[in-house]
Amino acid sequence: MNLQKWLKGFSFASMYGMFLILVMGALVTKTESGRGCGDDWPLCNGKFVPAYTIDSIIEYSHRFVVGVVGIILLIAFILVWMYSNRKDAKVFVSGAMFFTVLQALLGALAVIWPQSSSVLALHFGFSLMAFAFTLLLSLVYTRFGSGLSGATLSLTAGVRWGVFLITLYSYAVVYLGAFVRHTESSGGCIGWPLCNGSFIPELVGPTRVVFAHRLGAALLFVLLAWLFMAIRSQMRAEENMYQAAKWALILVITQIFSGAFVTLSMGYDSYLVASLLHAVLVSCLFGILCYLSVLAFQAKKGDRQAYGAR
Fold first, then answer.
1. DSSP-derived 3-state class of residue 47
2. In terms of pTM, does the model score above 0.90?
3. Has 59 been annotated as catalytic?
4. Cα–Cα–Cα angle for 283, 259, 95, nearest 5°?
């Protein structure tokens, strides 16, 4: 196995592992297993191998996976910095390492010293950033990282800034969604697309939080529809940026319907599955938007090839 395969292998392993951490983190939140190990960290209720309760197994499994993925990412970090001549890969692996350590520390602090819902929501946000960086790192070693031969990235300033601002805005929408979960506000809006039978409900308590998240998601759809149309007018269909914009639009539509699934499944066995699907889709959407941002940044520099060109 040559060095290039090692780099690619550990990059993809860290990306898949970080994705698993996101899913397991959402499972911990939705099953209210965050206190499954009590106030102990890194031990679980004072033991290396915890008692076999559902809460402790879910929480400790999450911690175990974070530890394993952390080791995989550390190996990828060392390999990239020692043997890769790709500056973009070094930036991405460094960003992934930073946010992985940050989310692990925040998770530990949340166990030892209970945090507010607003702080706990950051935990998912930091995990999402770590996943996005590992996704970008893995794409470096695919055709999406080397670009199309002879492709020209030429975007207007308005579209470039649109990509950056929409990506930032999507992070705010994701944070608000995590805040809904951590404040247990999901029941604030019964029914979909109406909220409690009204187009504009009484904005108090959990209803205000959930309704704000719905409005944020709707606006994100409008912005991504505009972005896709703008990029389509300036890019060929085979361009990576065009394909990324198309998938971003598809994912935000799917995400909206998965949110409806979450609302309509409350009180049923399918609620947990719907919630995890919602987290998976938003993770993929944010990763695609980060990829779009890198492409837009390359266009701003006037590069003749797509992101990651050698």
1. strand
2. no
3. yes
4. 15
